[in-house]
Description:
By secondary structure, this protein is mainly α.
Amino acid sequence: MTTATRQEVLSLYRSIFRLARKWQAASGQMEDTIKEKQYILNEARTLFQKNKNLTDPDLIKQCIDECTARIEIGLHYQIPYPRPIHLPPMGLIPLRGRRLQTQEKLRKLSKPVYLQSHDEVS
């Protein structure tokens, strides 16, 4: 990891902790605020620990992009949780063999950048 990349990652990590410190739940209730702050901190720690040994610059860039997108989406929608993706009805009909593998591949490719690591951690 280059020095510039390392600084960018550390800056993102610090900004997430600053965001968690200032976070207010949209409902305005203190219990919700505490739960959401704890979620933000736990999610950040988990994902940064999981990715701390990455050496491939493309993977690191992808993780940085995902982190930035999740911060921006969280601030915009005032929810710390990743927004779900919606597939059209019967988008994944039960198939067997090659067709099922093709659909699974297409679904994985269509997943937004801010959800790339969500299923792996949850």
